[in-house]
Each structure stands twice: as structure tokens, then as C-alpha cells.
Amino acid sequence: MIIRFTERRHIPSLGAVEMPVRRSTVLAAALAGAAVVGAALPVSVAHAEVGALYVDNASGVRCSDAGAGTQALPFCTVQAAADVVQPGQTVLLGGTAYDEQVVLTRSGTPGNPIVFAGSPASAGRSVRVGASLSGASGRIRPHAFVVNGVHDITIRNLDFNTAQEAVLVSGSDRVTIDGNLFTGVGGGAGLPVSPAVRLAAGTTAATVSRNRFDGAGTFGVAVDAGVAGTVVTTNIVNGSHAGGISVTDAPGTVVTGNTVADHCRNGIELDGASSGATVENNLVTADPATMSCEAGVHPVAIAVSAGSTAGTKADYNVVVTAGYPPYLWGGTAYGSTFTAATGQGAHDGGTEPCFDSVFVPFAPTCDWAVADAADALAPGRLSTDVYGRPRVDDPTVPDKGTGDGHDDIGAVEVQDPFTVQVDAYLTGNPNQPLEIGIGMTSSSPWAPSPTGTLDFGDGKSMSGPLDGFRFPLRHVYDAPGNYIVTLTATDSLGLTKKSTYGLDVKVPPMTASVGTIPYVAPGHPYQMMVGGSASSLWPVTSYRLDLGDGTPVSVGPQNPRQLLHDYPGRGLYTVSLQATDSRGRTATGTTQVQLNGDLPGDLPVAGKWAKGRPSTVGMFNSGQWVLRDSNTAGPATMTTVWLGQAGDLPTVADWDGAGHDQLGIYRQGVFALRHESGSVTSVPFGAPGDVPVPGYWDHNGHAQLAIYRPSISTFVVRHDDGSVSTAALGNPWDVPLVGDWDGVGHTQMGIYRPGDNTFALRHDNGSLSASSYGAIGDQPVVGDWLGKGRSSYGIFRRGMTTYALRNAYAGQPDSVTKLY
User: Fold this and answer.
1) Band (429; pLDDT cuts 50, 70, 90)
2) 267 closest CA partner among 306, 189, 213, 227
3) Is 716:709 a contact under the CB 8 Å cutoff?
């Protein structure tokens, strides 16, 4: 087991990040598991006093126990510093894990204590003092600090997780334990369970303040017999197995302003002869239903033995124990009759609060019985809460306490909940590319109508009532840059909150792209359709297209969206499109075209040529279909079929619902479909320049017609009921694809982008998956290559008459098939 011993910083929002819950018991269980991360008690941090001693064993730090403990050469162990520290000095701990039990033998003086504290230099690191260690003799040393026979000692802002008491004090005077975090202390395997902090016989004038105790083995704090003048104030004790604070045979003990949540036995107990005690301003709540308590055990909020009632005052407490009597006074249990029977608790409350678990752990959020209801004159009362924050007046509730009436019951003082938040974003206004929008949220339940100043970060600002800012606002910067938008607001109670938002204000870059699609026609074996586009916030005024084959460069104001071009022959051509906008900015897109000189007019096809078989590949050229009966790498049966003529586009689908595909062609806006009977049906649909993309759009076992219109990058589907649906996808130069990518029995859309060999497939849930496959010059095909009812894609590599068919979705290797 390792004790964690970490500096605490003054930031009250370091709580465990969980949603607020209504019952404290649920919160306690949740926080017990996250206490190390989010339960920091951010009270004042130790500053480097003159003559301070430094301890730092972090990796990479040069340290020595034989040195003087300077910042330049710190001690390696805490014990080395403890052995030489002088009154008034502070031992500042940095580093990581200290596997040691520190025994204090030196004392401070009144007003000049010896202080052991987390070092500001170690902010963000976990500073730990170790325990459960086996020395050379095999002895187990389970404590972090053993304080015996010394005086004027302060231990603050550290983390502990030890097998037994983290701090064990005996026979010592004026020991202060302040602002520390104790997590799971006192439950070491093979050792007796124990409290997190024990004050043992002979100890006087000790103070245990502003600590947080999570999951102690027995109690968070135990004050033993023979201890005098102890003050236990403004602590959070959560989830201790036995109880929160235990005082035994220690008269005059002060227990003030603590929050004790989720315990199996007594939240605060005075046992034996502990008369003359004060128990005030405490918030004690528990529900055994959410605790792992022994059978028959139930919690009591405040228990005072018969030998401790004399001279003891218990008042201004909020106590809740989920149906069990909250008080045990002189051996008798009391509920609502407590005050009438004992004269105690006249100002007590009993409504269980909601605890905040997100921003300020254990801050009550919905029980006003604790708000402004404490005795500000109670002994041991601190002017700040467990997080070091001041006492403040809640103007929404009447003052019920004493003094100024502002103190809340418990360890946490609820602060003014005034909040503001500002955010900013680029509006995308083409006429004002440096324009931003600014939004704000605010809440000021204690003091309405706050005022504020909104600083845009460019020397310009606006001020006034927040209600008059009329969000969202618009603001235009004079130049691009990084700006910090800051909203500083003050409510009528004088509380000021600030919110900032950083924004990189810049003009989006101009872009241009170009692509090509094979568009073979009779007498045009190397014809390509070339198209491009450009994007800018300002109008694009000119385009410069270089086809890469020596053809004169085309320059003009029109975007070349559908340009048919005949290349002279086989080869690799680089096509580039440069665009210029009205501000003189330019952008260039390029792509490469690989022409391999196969048979002019070759167009790859794929389909299920036989029922119950996977899709196989083939080729269409000028009305001749050559269909392969398998996708193996070796020889296969080839079937030749005639349908169509030069200039037709091949199309394949199951027109008849026969369980396999039939052939068809698309000619200038007309489908010609050949059926199982051998007959051919002509169906006009679309227009010249469209691309056929039939598919199983209606999920009814046979195909419906569809076309893709490159000029507007749109799929157009004709359904069986005569209706027509459209969907835009891709760019004008993309190749349309259709297939059952999801294996759901109907067709989805996709595109293939030749410029970067990318397949982009749209799925039923609206998502788009994209991956690059193949190389420049390849042509796409789609089919169910494995016969699993799910489509995949592939490519045909011209010049090699070879198909590569993708099977990755099924975890199978790709199929490589040479057509001939």
C-alpha cells in the first residue's frame, strides 16, 4: 500500500466529475472510487519561505540526503529533512513516491511551527509518503507520520493512503493537520482496521481542519483518552466504515462545522467521559441501504454517552439517518423529541441535502436548512470553508444563524452561483470572411441583472447590462489572427466572473480539384470526360485547364464541368486545373490519367450470371459481352453474349426476380432490358449523358431502374409505384456505384473518385465510409464476390486485363482474376 501525499491548490472545482445525485449515500459510494483524482482540498498552498527545506525524488531530479535540502539540491527523503528542520521552517515536498515512515523528533515554537507541506513546484505531480513498508528487520511500518513528544507541528496539503493511521499523534502539543486528503486509510490487509488520524494520550491543543477523509477503516478522526483541547473543524468525512469522528474520554473537545456522510455507525460520537464538548454546525447524513454495513447495524448522526452529556452543547446541526433515530443522547435514542427531552438541538434541521459532485464536492445544492443557519460564534469556527472560500450571505434565504448570520452548516460554504460563459465561432459569411458570432450563457439567481464588458481581443469592446447585449452578436475583425474573446461580468453583490474563448480567425483556404472519367465512344478509344471544381469565399473569376497532352491550355471564366477530350494514345497524362478568385488568390488541383491501350471501348462488368453463385466479372465492348464463370486466378469458362452496339453503356440487374442477373444496355436515355424469356423491353428513363445504376431500391426481390446524372452529381431512382426519388452524392467527375454494402437485401449508393482511387460508400444509417483502393487509371466494379449477400467493390486494371476484388469485410484475402 502506498500513501499519497499531494499538495493542494486553491481551486474549489477539482471535484470528482460525476452528475449530481439526490442522495448523499449514492454520491459517497461514487466518490470513494474516484477520491484520488477528484477530491482535492484546495486550501492555501505553502509558499517557499526563507530557509525552507526541499524534498524532491522525482525522476531526473538530482537529490541528496547528505546535502542541505536546497531547491537546487533537495533531500531525497522526508526523514532527512525532518531530522534537521528548525522552528519556523517549512519542508516543501515535491517528487513522487516516498517509501518511508517519517518519525518527527524536532519541535517548533509557538508562532513558529515546523511545517510539512506540498511544494508549489510540484504542481500537477502526485507527492506521496509511503507506508506498509518492510525494513531490513522485516518490521512493517504502516504510518506516514509518527508525531510523538513534540510540539508546534503543522502537516498540510498532502495526500495519504496508508495501511493504518496516516498521522499518529501522541504526547504532543499544538499539532495542526490541515487541508490534506486521506483516501482508504486504515484498512491494510493483515493489520487491524484503524482511523485515518488518531490523536492519542498526552496530546493537547491539536487542530484537525479542512481535510477530506474518504473510506477510512474505522473513523476519519479518533480522539483518544487523555487528549485535551482538540478542535475538529470544517472537515469532510465520507464513507468511513465505522463512523466519522470519534471522541473517547477526552473532555472539552470541539467538533464544529464538519460534513459527515455515509457511515455505518455513529457520524459523530462522544464516548466514555467526554463532557464539556461542543458539537455545532455539523451536517451529518447517512443511508445504510447503500453502505456495506454489518447486519443489524444502523447509523446514528450524533451519539453522546451518559458520561459525556454534562456541559456538552449540541446545536445548529443538520442530521439525517434515513428512517433511524438521528440522536443517541445518554444512551437513549431520539428523533423529533430530542430538543424537548434534552434541551439540545433547538436550532437543528433534518432535511437531507442534494450534494454537488461535479464542481464542488459535498456542496449542498437543494437543502436550504443548511444555508445561513450556522452558529458563527461556535468555538472552532473558521472564517473559510474546507476549500478555503469565504463565508457569504445567500440573499435568497433568511438568516437563521448567529453573528452575521452568513455561515452555512457543514464544511462547505455555498457561494454565489453566478456564472457566465462565452463562446465564439466563424459565421462563414462570404461577404465578411473575418466575421465571428458570439454567444453567451449566464445565471445569476442571487443577484439579477449583472453588468459586463465584452472584449473582442482586438482593442474593441462593449459594456453594459448583460441583458442588453442581445446575443448572438456579430463582430468583424480587421485582419486574420488569433483572438481571445473575454467576457467579464459583475453581479450586484460585487462578485466578478470571467469567461474566455480563443478563436483562430482566418480566411478558409481556396481549393481546386480536377478528375477524369473514361468515356469511350465509337471511334474514340482514348476519350475521357474531364471535370473540375473550385471553392473560395470570394467569387472564382477564372479557370486554367491543362489536359497534359500538349493540347493548348484553356483559360476562361467558365468551370470545365463536362469536357470530353480525346487523348492521342496510351501513356500517363497529368491534368491540372488552376482557379483564381476575385481577390487574386489561386488554387490548383491535379490528377493523372493512365491509358494502357486495351481494346478500344472495353468496359468492365460484373454480375451473378447463375442463381446461387457469387458475382463474377466480364467485359462489354460494342455489344459483345464476355462473361467469366469464376473469379479464380486460373482458367475459367467464358460465355459470349451479344446485346447492344458501340456507344452503349452496359447495365446488369435482376429485372425478373429470378435470383440472378440479366443483361441490359443504356442508350441515350433509354434502357433496353433482356429478360429470362429472351425478350427485350425498352424503357425510356433519363437523358443522354446519364449513367445507368439500377438496383434493388424497393427491397422486393427484383431491380428498379436508376440513373446517375454527372452534371449535378445526383442519383435518380424510379420505383415500382411510379414515384421518383433523388439523392446527391459525389462530384461531376465521380463514377457512380450501387450495391448492398450493408448486406440488408437492398441497394445503397456510392461513388468512385478516379483522381485518388477512393471508394466512398453511403450506408443505411447515413454514414459514409471511404477507402483508397487500386491505382490511377483503374476502373471500378461492384459485386457479391463471396456469395454472402453483401456487395463489395474491386478494380479493373487496363493493360493487364486483370481484376482485383476486395473481400476485406469478411476477413478474406482479395481475389485477383485475369479476364482472359
Assistant:
1) confident
2) 213
3) yes
Question: If you ran DSSP here, which 8-state letter would residue 102 be given?
Answer: E
DSSP 49-75: -TT-EEE---TT----TTS---SSS-B
pLDDT confidence of residue 352: 61
Q: Measured between alpha carbons, how far is 707 from 133 in angstroms, rounded to an integer?
A: 77
Give the DSSP letter of residue 551: P
Question: Measuring CA to CA, which residue among 275, 257, 493 is closest to residue 385?
Answer: 257
pTM equals 0.60
Q: Please check whether residue 15 is in contact with residue 162, taking contact to mean a CB–CB distance below 8 angstroms.
A: no
Q: Which three cell numbers stand for residue 793?
A: 467493390
Q: Are 608 and 614 in contact (CB under 8 A)?
A: yes
The 10 Å Cβ neighbour count of residue 720 is 10
Banded model confidence at residue 290, pLDDT cuts 50, 70, 90: low
Give the H/E segment covering residue 706.
strand 706-709
| Coil/strand/helix, residue 797 | strand
Task: Give the N- to C-terminal CA distance of the chain in Å, as an integer.
Answer: 72
Residue 516, classified by CB atoms within 10 Å of its CB into exposed (0-12), middle (13-18) or buried (19+), is buried
Section 298-319 average pLDDT: 94
Alpha-carbon distance of 219 to 520, in angstroms, equals 86
pLDDT for residue 286: 78
DSSP 3-state assignment of 339? helix
Sign (positive or negative) of CA dihedral 28, 32, 38, 41: positive
The C-alpha atoms of residue 64 and residue 71 are separated, in whole angstroms, by 11
Q: Between the ranges 37-51, 197-211, 803-817, where is the mean pLDDT highest?
A: 197-211
pLDDT for 145 beyond 80: yes
In sequence order, what are the residues at sequence separation of 6 or more whose Cβ sits closer than 8 angstroms to the Cβ of residue 768? 760, 761, 762
Residue corresponding to grid cell 448570520: 405
Distance CA 308, CA 314 (A): 11
Pairwise pLDDT comparison (219 vs 136), residue with the higher score? 219
Q: 237: alpha, beta or left, given left = phi > 0 and alpha = psi -120 to 50?
A: beta
| 751-797 pLDDT tens trace | 999 888 999 999 999 999 999 999 888 899 999 999 999 999 999 98
Task: Find, among 596, 601, 599, 593, the residue nearest to 521 by Cα.
Answer: 601
SS3 366: coil
CA-to-CA distance for 528 and 351, rounded, in angstroms?
80
**How would DSSP label each residue in 160-217?**
E--SS-SEEEES-EEEEEES-EEESTT--TTS----SEEE-TT-BS-EEES-EEES-S
